[in-house]
Amino acid sequence: SAPAAAPAAPAAATAETPPPRIPAGHFAKRPAFWNTQLSPDGSMLAFMRENKGKTTFVITETASGKMVRALLADPTDELSWYTWVTNDKLLLGVSTPGKFFDEDARYTRLILVELASGAMTRLFSRSKVLEADNVVHIAKDGSYVLVAIQQTVYDYPSVQRHELKPDGKITTVQSSREGVWNWTTDDDGVVRMGTGWYEGKLRVYYRASAADELKLVAKIREGAEDDYFDTLQIVTGSDEGYVLAPGENGRVGLRRFNFATRQVIETVFEHPDWDIDSVTLRKGKPYAAYFTADRDEVHWFDPEVAKQYRALRKALGTGEVWIVSRADNDSRMLVYAGQENDPGVLYMFDPAAKHMQEIAQYRPEIDFRTLSAPKPMQYTARDGTVIRGYLTLPRGREPKNLPLIVMPHGGPFGVRDKLEYNDEVQLLANRGYAVLQPNFRGSGGYGDAFYQLGAGQVGRGMQDDIDDAMDWAVKEGIADPKRVCVVGASYGGYAALWAVLRNPERYRCAASWAGVTDWNKMLRYDNRYLTSKASKSWQARVRGEKTFDLDAVSPYRLAGQLSRPVLLAQGTTDTIVPMSQYNLFEKASRSAPVPPQTLVIEDEGHSFSKPESAQAWYEALDAFLARHNPADAAPGGAVAETVAAGEAGPAADKGAAPATP
Predict the structure, then answer these.
(1) Distances in Å between the alpha carbon of 645 and those of 504, 508, 593, 594, 639?
(2) What gap in Å lies between CA 295 and CA 417, rounded to an integer?
(3) Is residue 401 part of a domain?
């Protein structure tokens, strides 16, 4: 297991005065542009920005700042990702909400952007299947892309070659195989491997070259983690490549691997305490390995790069420095500098000239010197499992008997909180709340054994860990047991709702953004949206025992019994947790003793794409907590007694009308 972090304890009382109240809108403020990437030669900069309420995709010259293109996508599309193909072509991944067999669903597609003409071409536009943006290879010259896509909804995916030009020709380069959902190519775009779960086993097909036939080389049973790997690269003309795979101690590390013999040739890099999250390859060789201790960390394979990174950190004098994008020849770099109590700044760096130019502040209205610094903590859950997390204390208040917000993360599997800047945490700390972020069982980064502890524990063992986090804070004297609320988004939103339904005696209130309310319907909607371990059987991981009825841990079922104040919020165009999940709970809770206060934000997705949306949520949350768990109330005071008595308060809080930003 990872080395134990020193348990957080109440700090000595301080004479520091509380910082000034920071407007919620300042935490919602976004930089003038975001999602920045340099072109391969570094001559252009791509980014997103708001223009009259609409998101615009912009390309400018880096040297002069002159605009090259400003493109506006279909308003129904939500931009998921983009990448430079060449200096004159980009690929955008978009999703569009729709219906699939009468269920809410999202349709993903690729859009080709050609800079010379400004043309935006939707690839696979005639396809009727849900997913059409699973890119497995992009030609080095930008002439074509390979995409794993189903021919019909009844087929397994094949690999289609789509020419990257308007009306580009589509051909099949690899037919589908029963059970195969994931295809991997080598550096030259030859399909070399296919994997997928079928009849309870992970099937692995492999071939040495384009001239060979794909053969079934392995059937890996569920739970055989030693045989599982995440392929990063297969080297052209070789059976070797790089994978992320667990070692003898259960830690995921970077291995050189022989795909024909399925043997590890050597361990390239393994951290003794933390899983490797991802690896960057450059020119076919390992460039950087990323892992998360208490904060994101990196191992550079090139000593000169490591030296440059240390020099940047020293020059910028901050806790975190990251090169978020770079030209292929390293002539220009985008550099982020910030830390958990500093939103940070984005710079353009010219290494040859040793020149650093500020191009954007992430929260320009906030004085970071007034913010609170989260600290690592740990506690022992009721079954003896050590759980780690982060505690943020409000400044200028004695850390005793504070109102507490427990904030579970989304996911839930393979995801975790860490030391990083978080608008919502800082907003709540600024208002006088202690904020506790537990990395409950099943969270990522702590090794395979801890990850596996989460299997079948949605709403059960995971929820116990959240309750035990509260107990730790109370035992330490930090939290007032009568002033504890749970706030979260996505899975965290589910956990918040479930907290006040499963254990209403514990919690004063809950607030949920885009929380799951019906697990059976959620799994039917799509079994990929809430997990980072796509190779696993997601449904089995959530459900646990095959006979377990997920209604037993679904909030909608008990919504009519709601006896604690709840803020229920959702965006109408959410394609991850669909609006139907919100509607189901809202309808079921109308006759509850304490109906929820509601917030519906039109034209908003799972996360906030517009500052107005974030501000609407922050202001609603701020007002909700001020009413039902005021930070300045006396410990265990009258409000707690009122809530315990089941009084909902004025009718204005009962099922408030949908709000828009």
Answers:
(1) 12, 11, 11, 11, 10
(2) 9
(3) yes
Q: For the segment 567-601, what is each residue's pLDDT rounded down to a tens digit?
A: 999 999 887 899 999 999 999 999 999 999 999 99
What are the CA-CA distances from residue 487 to residues 17, 222, 303, 556 (Å)?
26, 34, 43, 18
Check: CB of residue 384 under 8 Å from CB of residue 33: no
Residue 634 bridge partners (DSSP): none
**pTM for the whole structure:** 0.82
Q: What are phi and psi of 527, to 5 degrees?
A: -90, 15
Which residue reads 């109370």 in tokens? 474
- What is the rounded distance in angstroms from the CA atom of residue 141 to the CA atom of residue 373? 47
586 lies in some domain = yes
3-state secondary structure of 277: strand
Question: What distance in Å separates the CA atoms of residue 326 and residue 349, rounded to the nearest whole number?
Answer: 9
> Which has the closest alpha carbon to 150: 120, 182, 122?
182
Q: Which two tokens stand for residue 495?
A: 């956990």
Does residue 497 sit within a domain? yes
Both tokens of residue 234? Answer: 């297969």
Please tell me the distance from the alpha carbon of residue 590 to that of residue 477, in angstroms, as a whole number.
37
- Tell me how far the alpha carbon of residue 655 is from its chain's centroid: 30
3-class secondary structure, 310: helix
Backbone angles phi and psi of 154, in degrees to 5 = -100, 0
Count of other CB atoms within 10 angstroms of residue 580 = 16
The C-alpha angle 648, 654, 655, rounded to 5 degrees, equals: 150
- Tell me the pLDDT of the chain averaged across its residues: 88
Quote the tokens at residue 209: 């070259």
Range of the domain at 481: 375-653
CA-nearest of 186, 115, 109, 188 to 147 is 109
CA 73 to chain CA centroid, nearest Å: 24
Q: Whose CA is closest to 22, among 336, 430, 334?
A: 430
Q: With CA atoms as reference, report the closest residue to 366 among 17, 31, 614.
A: 31
For residue range 258-294, what is the model confidence (pLDDT) as tens digits?
Answer: 999 889 999 999 999 899 999 999 888 999 999 999 9
Question: Residue 36, SS3?
Answer: strand
pLDDT in tens, 618-640: 999 999 999 999 998 777 654 44
The structure tokens listed for 543 are 């459900």
Based on the structure, what is the number of domains in the chain? 1
CATH number, residue 583: 3.40.50.1820
Within a domain: 608:
yes
What phi and psi, each to the nearest 5 degrees, are found at residue 619?
-70, -40
Helix (H, G, I), strand (E, B) or coil at 472: helix
